Amino acid sequence: MTPQGGKIKSSKYEEKMFNDVRIDRQVRQTKNDESKSTIYLRVHLVGDGRRNEFILSTRCYVDTTQWDSDKKRVKGNSTEAARYNKKLRDYEDTIHKCFEDIKKNEPVSVQKLKDNINFKLFGIQSERLAKQLYLPDLFDRYLENHRSKIGHSRKGRYVFVKKKAIEFSKKTFGTPNYDINRLDKDWFDKFHEFLIDGFKYKIPTITGYQKVLKAVVNDAYKCKLIKENPFVNCPLNYTETSIHALTNDELGKLINFKFEDETLQLLADCFVFGTQTGLAHTDLKNLTHSMIKSIDGRDFICKNRNKTDGESIIAITAIAKKIMNKYISHPKIEGTGLVLPVMNINSYNTKLKLIAAKCGIYSKLTSHIARHTFATTVWLDGSGSMESLQRILGHQEMKSTQKYGRITPKRILDESEKVLQL
Hints:
CATH topology of the largest domain: hpI Integrase, Chain A
Largest sheet: 4 strands, antiparallel
Strand order of the largest sheet: 1-5-4-3
CATH class of the largest domain: Mainly Alpha
Distance between the termini: 66 Å
Number of strands: 11
Number of domains: 3
Helix content: 40-55%
Structural class: alpha+beta
Order of helices and strands: EEEEEEEHEHHHHHHHHHEEEHHHHHH
């Protein structure tokens, strides 16, 4: 269904400037297959009484009988038809955005628009465009090419860092469009100072933003959009941050407390489920019954993490099983296959503060504290190994898991009894 790339054909044209763009859809019989049609977009440029056009091959192929020539869309209400029609709308939106982005800074010509469309949609970079790529373009391209692997919350982070990079370029260099060929360690360090001085972000937060920046630029390097990776010698500052987790007593208070408010009870149950499975909010929200497998008579969650794509294998405890059964027929998830009706992250974290207060828990509660509680209090304090914890949490590297290996009072007492024979 998803187009694998595309090429643009055009009629002969002169280098003229235009101020408006219009798009028509059309189909042509696919070569060597009379039953199939290829969908094209005819892009019309107009301005001052002049007109020009070029043809964009979307590389979308449909059965000829499925194309509605009057409505210019794929017929039917199937998932396949909906996916095709959405792809066409996305293509058209991208073309309009390319046109407007060019128009903001310079006159629009056919060649400039073609180059930008090829780059944004298909990652095809002309020699001419290679000399004019700007940092915001790399963010747009990265999000377009990796959208299937980036969750909604992570996408928001990339958009945010792009916004801050534009603000930094405007303030420091007087332009939002910084040439990617001029990126270097000095730029990286100054951007770091900009985030600290201007917004007072904490070091771990800034490090997360810089990871996003490095990922975008490194991807451009891998795709040969730039000759060298300018940030290869720019280390990230991983300062030690304390891992907050609920104690067994605090977790027991939360499990046993009964809320009169159904929304708060639902939220508390979702949080407790996270303490029993180690699932982050985004993985919890997207957990489906199809991810639950039976292994040797026991139920396990088998899934890839949304964030890292690392595989997680998680045993379902009796507490987690009880919560699953409680919401199996909840109206908000009926027919979706989802396990729990998890609310959005902002409401989730806001209401967790109220839950903590009602339960008499004085530790700060956030969605990620559930994951920390599973790793530290449930698993490691329960004598689970670090190697198995890495697999459960879906970490790709052990160093990500080792931050949970702090020494808790319970572990000291347990080991003291064994070593000192108390």
